[in-house]
């Protein structure tokens, strides 16, 4: 059911090859359809002709296996964190995380809640934060264009960072998920 | 309608205390021993056939849990609230899941949030909102949510003051709206 | 003790549906066992959106809770503000000016209008009819623009406050509402032709997901779920709040008991909202829109308990607010209408249903996870 191997360290491609692939990656961002929080409601207008995110090559995919981007749309409850980790690790490399809302940055208005994370960065490598509660569709599009720029420049390396520092992330994740019943390396 | 209900309840339960009465709203407080009788009577003879909600208030200073059953006469849109106090230590409240199918979910939530046991509920103890919770039940008054959040989710960049007075500041009397300011100017 | 035939691993398949699944409403999951493609047992799992609102409210001032309560229901936040404000007004005895009551009703109807547009299209969206879902969301966006002009925010308005509303209508706002209503009204027949007259939609929804009329009282069903099964229950009519007793309307009800009937109820609610908004706009009186409140940092609400009720697009919404006379609420318990729809009723309705109809049934029951979990 699971593969228990530690993730391989990502190898380095030749620089010009990497540049070309990054260009291609930036223009076809496929997003996992997982509304983890209330920000998901502002993702829906993005599909319609008014904001139309498909003109940037951004499309929704039903399964993480076909996607590149995971949107954390707001506060993460501890119960969701476990599912989000599982979803994130199922996405094929390269993968990116866009986090919406103030509550992913520092807890926002749920800073003293017993069931929501405060700083998402400790548990998953976030590439782009979009602030606001909740961010408008324009802000989300802006966040996506920032992500595209980062990918083109080769700066969106969250997934590599996650693999290299897996122990740090796992330690933080296990601190919250006390009934960890997944294998340590389920890639 | 409410007068009749009140009279019948008063005849049956002389120790009943009236909390609030309106034309389609009645709130009564009964002794612990007669709470179940009152609920069954309300359902069978007074026409309150729907269970809207089971709610709990932790009255820490009196060392009791106040359980409130909110019943409804569906056709007349009339609400009957029946409250009763239960001691806080090893609190046990009879289950209503045999009478109403909806009660089971409410009782599972209360078991999780307050640690109140409902013997007779076949699904008691199943995870409802929380997953693998080991601390004090979170809705109890002696559970400090901010302290827990700091301890488990770690430090975040805190505000300088947690006293709301520092934020709302010296706005006295009215919201700081254009309308409010305009009215202040007119004075 | 033998093996439960409903969950016997030799005969049944065990499947988790959600939380990461495009067919699930919001963030919740259903654990199902099925024999062939017939479901034999289903368990709803909620709690993925639990933020502990009720605990947080006990830690904040009365007025500081307004930004919190509106986040309990994402598509229709004004219901929460209204319900919480009604409870505070009942406990403190603050009077609401007449014009504020009319504006509040206008905001509530606009919100209901927007949600029903999205939900009616969303119902078709679960059957793969993506066009209707897109149209519904596009129409809703026009209404969100109105909200933006009125309150400054698209989704979370924080517009209603105890004793009135935050600010008056901007000049010429009535005309812009009328423009939007006409624009949407012109296009609604197209939506009808696409959804209600669609053969596939009829085949997939008629006699599917039947809510028996005798379940209504047993479970306490409300909103379109109850009204699709012949109930005439509507808090706006039965226990009117604000100015609903001054408006002229009939409760929408259908007797089909199935998903089609519930979709039809929502479609007719859209028409009802348009008519109500027009009535409100034509009868709106002049006057102040807010009562002067005391110093909010020292504001103590008198001790007491009150259960306030408001009709949302999904049914009756309740707030059980308890004050002990201090600066902060003692307890605020939110009763969302989809609590009973999504947990006990869904678990019962899914038994015997076809696996392809799960998300269809779920959306038709107006499931909204954040109000179940808070």
Rg of chain C, nearest Å: 21 Å
The spatial strand order of the largest sheet of chain C comes to 1-2-3
Helix content of chain C: 40-55%
Question: Could you report the average pLDDT of chain A, rounded to the nearest whole number?
Answer: 83
Strand-residue proportion of chain C = 5-15%
Distance between the first and last residues' Cα of chain A: 11 Å
CATH class of chain A: Alpha Beta
Strand content of chain A: 5-15%
Going by CATH, the architecture of chain A would be: 3-Layer(aba) Sandwich
Number of strands of chain A: 5
What is the end-to-end distance of chain C? 38 Å
> Which chains make the largest contact?
B-C, 50 and 53 residues
Name the CATH homologous superfamily of chain C. Answer: Cytochrome-c3 Hydrogenase, chain B
| Mean residue pLDDT of chain C | 87
Task: Assign the structural class of chain A, choosing from mainly alpha, mainly beta, alpha/beta, alpha+beta, or little secondary structure.
Answer: alpha/beta
Tell me which CATH architecture of chain C applies here.
Orthogonal Bundle
Radius of gyration of chain A: 16 Å
SSE topology string of chain C: EEEHHHHHEEHHHHHHEEEHHH
Subunit arrangement of the protein? heterotrimer
Which geometry of chain C do the CA atoms define?
globular
SSE topology:
The complex is a heterotrimer of chains A (187), B (187) and C (374).
Chain A: H1 15-26, E1 30-32, H2 44-47, E2 59-61, E3 69-73, H3 78-90, E4 96-100, H4 102-106, E5 128-130, H5 137-153, H6 158-164, H7 166-176
Parallel strand pairs in A: 1-2, 3-4, 4-5
Chain B: H1 2-12, E1 17-22, E2 25-29, H2 35-44, E3 50-59, E4 64-73, E5 78-87, H3 103-114, H4 145-153, H5 165-168, H6 178-186
Parallel strand pairs in B: 2-5
Antiparallel strand pairs in B: 1-2, 3-4, 4-5
Chain C: E1 13-17, E2 29-35, E3 38-45, H1 53-58, H2 66-69, H3 78-92, H4 98-125, H5 130-151, E4 160-161, E5 164-165, H6 173-195, H7 199-205, H8 215-219, H9 223-227, H10 235-238, H11 259-283, E6 304-312, E7 315-323, E8 331-335, H12 338-350, H13 358-364, H14 369-373
Antiparallel strand pairs in C: 1-2, 2-3, 4-5, 6-7, 7-8
